[in-house]
Design a protein that fits this description.
about 450 residues, alpha/beta, Rossmann fold, 2 domains, 6-stranded mixed β-sheet, two-stranded antiparallel sheet, 8 strands
């Protein structure tokens, strides 16, 4: 678990204990300012390559939205639940306006939609209504849960009775996002007092370890109207309907306490966690981009070195040329990884790699030296064939040197705990030598014949 998620976990544990010290003093303000600064730094970081920034354009747009949210002092609360449990009605009752459409036929909310709730200080709380979780297949439901939770600071999970398996699964997914959760038994007016208390106790059993017992509350967002008979002055009976106001005071009080105590800290930690994930993604994309560039660089040097070896008519001198190209390769890779090496450092790195290769593949280097000597004594077609064979070996050697140097640079100029011997062995074992030699020989011979025709 990362330090960021550990921080979130500690905060949510304090919330579940009802620890009023968690957000007192200037802590919330400090977290808020730090989160805003980290988002701005990430958004304006000129070291992020343009292609990486374009690939993650949606994430950067969300970072900008989160920064605006912090600057506007907002808190976002998502409302989750099955179709027709009264999610939208509950949100409307909290907002005290008909902001969300309410329907009875298989749900009416089709997308996550935010609305401002200005019941608190500052610019207030924004409620996000979401599609019913049973309108979506399992994979889509889980994706929605993570997406909405990622931009929400608190989640209200709404049920209207004992929890179904699907509801328990969905709540488990939300719990993995480590957002604070409230479980609301809506339509509580349908139950007697005893039935309601037994049902709340049952719900608390279901969510043990996921939701604090004090955060499992009952509500009636849209209670059924009362119907009664009234007698007029003449003794005639008349049926009348009495509309009842929403009963959401327990939920409102709990939300108000959390917002008052932890609102700014929740918003700040949520933004910081998302920024951390984006930062990790950026790092991954940069590493991938560097690997792609490094692979192209290694191939270019493989071609250059193999042709230099194949075309050089002077025995052994081709190996000296190959050494110079290896040094150029290592220095080029170091620039790709942003860790420039001097020529002396590059030579030392090559010496380390070649020492390990020689220990592992002495026979290959022996054949390389013999082929170099034989090439000067050959003529005609035999020269071409010998040059092709030696050039292929040079290609393979360059591939090994390049891969080993890249591994060293990608680890920040480190061979890791097991040292260069293990790294080089792993690379040798991971490459298909025969396949590389065939490819190299074919490429070299094609180029040699092409130059002869020219």
């Amino acid at each position: 678990m990362t330090d960021r998620s550990s921080l979130w976990t500690r905060l949510t544990r304090r919330l579940r204990r009802g620890d009023t010290a968690a957000g007192t003093g200037n802590g919330g303000q400090d977290h808020h300012a730090q989160a805003a600064d980290s988002l701005r730094a990430l958004l304006t970081d000129e070291r992020i390559p343009g292609p990486v920034r374009r690939t993650l354009a949606a994430d950067f747009a969300r970072l900008e939205a989160m920064l605006r949210k912090l600057d506007n002092d907002e808190l976002h609360i998502a409302v989750f639940g099955r179709v027709s449990v009264g999610k939208s009605a509950l949100a409307n009752a909290l907002l005290d306006e008909q902001a969300f459409e309410v329907g009875v036929l298989h749900g009416t909310t089709r997308a996550a939609t935010p609305r401002a709730w200005r019941a608190f200080t500052g610019n207030g709380v924004h409620l996000i209504d979401t599609p019913g979780i049973d309108e979506l297949d399992g994979e889509t439901r889980e994706k929605l849960a993570f997406e909405v939770a990622a931009v929400s600071d608190l989640v209200i999970f709404v049920v209207d009775g004992d929890m179904t398996v699907r509801e328990r699964d969905a709540l488990g997914v939300l719990a993995r996002t480590e957002r604070p959760l409230l479980l609301v038994l809506n339509k509580a007016d349908r139950y007697s007092d005893d039935e309601r208390e037994r049902l709340l106790a049952r719900l608390r059993e279901h969510v043990t370890g996921l939701v604090n017992a004090g955060d499992v509350v009952a509500a009636s967002a849209s209670p059924a109207p009362l119907r009664r008979l009234r007698c007029d002055a003449e003794g005639r009976e008349h049926a009348e309907t009495i509309e009842r106001a929403p009963d959401i005071e327990r939920l409102r009080e709990r939300l108000a306490a959390i917002v008052e105590r932890e609102g700014r800290t929740l918003a700040a930690l949520n933004a910081s966690l998302f920024a951390g994930r984006v930062s990790d993604d950026i790092g991954t994309r940069i590493v991938e981009a560097r690997r792609d560039i490094a692979a192209k660089v290694i191939r270019q040097y493989c071609i250059a070195k193999s042709l230099a070896v194949a075309l050089n008519p002077v025995p052994v001198a081709d190996l000296l040329a190959a050494g110079a190209l290896d040094a150029g390769l290592v220095m080029h890779l170091a620039r790709v990884y942003g860790l420039p090496l001097t020529q002396r450092e590059a030579g030392g790195l090559i010496a380390t790699i070649c020492a390990q290769l020689a220990a592992l593949m002495g026979a290959i280097w022996g054949v390389h030296l013999v082929a170099s000597a034989l090439k000067g004594l050959s003529a005609g077609v035999s020269t071409v064939l010998t040059a092709g064979a030696q050039g292929a070996l040079a290609w393979y050697a360059t591939e090994l040197v390049g891969r080993a140097a890249e591994r060293y640079l990608a680890a920040g100029k480190s061979w890791g705990e097991q040292g260069p011997k293990r790294v080089v062995r792993d690379i040798v074992e991971s490459l298909d030598r025969d396949s590389i030699l065939r490819e190299a020989r074919d490429e070299i011979l094609a180029r040699l014949r092409g130059s002869d025709r020219g």
